[in-house]
Design brief:
alpha/beta, 5-stranded parallel sheet, elongated, binds cytidine-5'-triphosphate
């Protein structure tokens, strides 16, 4: 998959830079065109001569060549690349990337990169475990960067722990798998319906009952399905997100009833339906046609009536060949509740997230999921960015609809 790919290999100043030579060799051997960008500290560990000899290109390190004044454009480099790999990424470079401190050519190239970015941290175990490093890594993950987690093992300091840069062979495998995924148009010709975001149930013209759903998970799923070639209809509650790029028709709705009506229009033709919206279960029985005034009544009781269950309503009229997926955000008895939703709503798969897991759920940029299927399979995933979680979910859908 790497043949002909344009790859920027970013090398920062850590002892693991010696492994970057093997990584460069493997990438070139796989047919990639590699441009090395190295930080000034990186050059203390490994010489540009070795790197340019192996890549067949002059190594870029400074903003311009001192004796000729030739300017090295980080913007052009960022546009040229199909992907950027920063290996090793030291604690300091990670902090700069996370905070936009553009004080060397490598960081400016990172900030200009339009392509996917892979980051392979390497540092001593205490630095790796420090809350500031963890926070910076999580920030990079939330920007959509792919973190290639370091391994545990012997470190240059003589200590044993987590911080060893992943082996070059494994990094090449990660890249290979990534390109295999994006080039594979596995959902071409398929129609995918996705519900996303919260619903708002009006109380009066200025008030509603709603929830904290950001819509990020549903939008990430829409983007991922479209990237794999699907025609996507995204039925979205009120969120402040731009429509994903690609073949995505966004239908904006406000209430659960509107969401159901919009879904009913496309459901029969959908090959896959993913019910990701946090639909309000109840709505006020009556919506006041004027703003309810504070002085109107000394106390107020709102009578709520049950909203339609979109997933269950459509699940009851599903036809063969459709794959239906629901979500279950739970605070307790996650697996039991998740499985019961699977059966009750006639779904093929439920994605369970627990409110007890830090970083999982509604509003953040990350999620931690367990997938259960009607066939009885169960798979848990580590905390990842919602973009990565979307790819995992769609992989699971493809596996069960095969
Ligand atoms: N769902 C739906 N319509 C509703 C309620 C939920 O389509 N009125 C969908 C959600 O999009 C999700 C799944 O059903 O895919 C489970 O939603 P959840 O709110 O977790 O479950 P509920 O059925 O509402 O059950 P409970 O509130 O008891 O947890």
């Amino acid at each position: 998959m790497l043949k002909g790919k344009h790859i920027i290999l970013g090398i920062t100043g850590g002892i693991a830079a010696y492994k970057s030579v093997s990584l460069l060799r493997l990438l070139v051997k796989a047919g990639a065109e590699v441009q090395v960008v190295i930080t000034p500290a990186g050059k203390e560990f490994i010489t540009p001569v070795t790197l340019s000899a192996l890549s067949g290109k002059p190594v870029v390190s400074e903003f311009f060549t001192a004796n000729t004044g030739e300017w090295h454009s980080h913007v052009d480099l960022g546009l040229w690349a199909d992907c950027m790999v920063i290996a090793p990424a030291t604690a300091s470079s990670i902090a700069k990337m996370a905070n936009g401190v553009a004080d060397n050519m490598l960081i400016t190239t990172y900030l200009s990169a339009k392509s996917p970015v892979f980051i392979a941290p390497a540092m001593d175990l205490d630095m790796m475990a420090h809350p500031s490093t963890r926070r910076n890594i999580e920030a990079l993950r939330s920007y959509g960067n792919h973190i290639i987690e370091p391994e545990s093992g012997f470190l240059a300091s003589g200590l044993i722990g987590k911080g060893r840069m992943e082996e070059p062979e494994k990094i090449v495998e990660v890249l290979d798998r990534f390109f295999e995924k994006i080039e594979n148009q596995s959902l071409a010709g398929k129609k995918v319906l996705i519900t996303a975001g919260p619903t708002y149930e009006a109380i009066d013209p200025v008030r509603f009952i709603g929830n904290y759903s950001s819509g990020k998970m549903g939008y990430a799923l829409a983007a991922e399905a479209a990237r794999r070639g699907a025609e996507v209809v995204l039925v979205s509650g009120p969120v402040s997100l731009p429509a994903p790029e690609g073949n995505v028709t966004r239908v904006d709705v406000t209430s659960a009833r509107e969401m159901l009506t919009a879904c009913e229009k496309v459901f029969d033709e959908a090959d896959v339906a993913i019910f990701c919206a946090a639909v309000a279960d109840y709505a006020p029985e009556h919506v006041a046609d004027h703003k309810i005034k504070r002085g109107d009544m000394p106390e107020m009781t709102l009578k709520l009536v049950r909203n339609p269950d979109i997933a269950a309503t459509l699940g009851a009229r599903r036809h063969g060949g459709q794959t239906l997926v629901g979500f279950a955000l739970e605070t307790d008895d996650e697996m039991v509740n998740g499985r019961s939703k699977l059966e009750r709503k006639h779904l093929d798969m439920v994605v369970i997230n627990s409110m007890r897991d830090a970083g999982a759920g509604f509003s953040g940029d990350t999620n931690k999921i367990t997938v259960v299927t009607a066939a009885g399979d169960e798979k848990s995933f580590p905390l990842k960015s919602k973009t990565e979680v979307a790819a995992d979910i769609i992989d699971c859908i493809e596996n069960i609809s095969r």
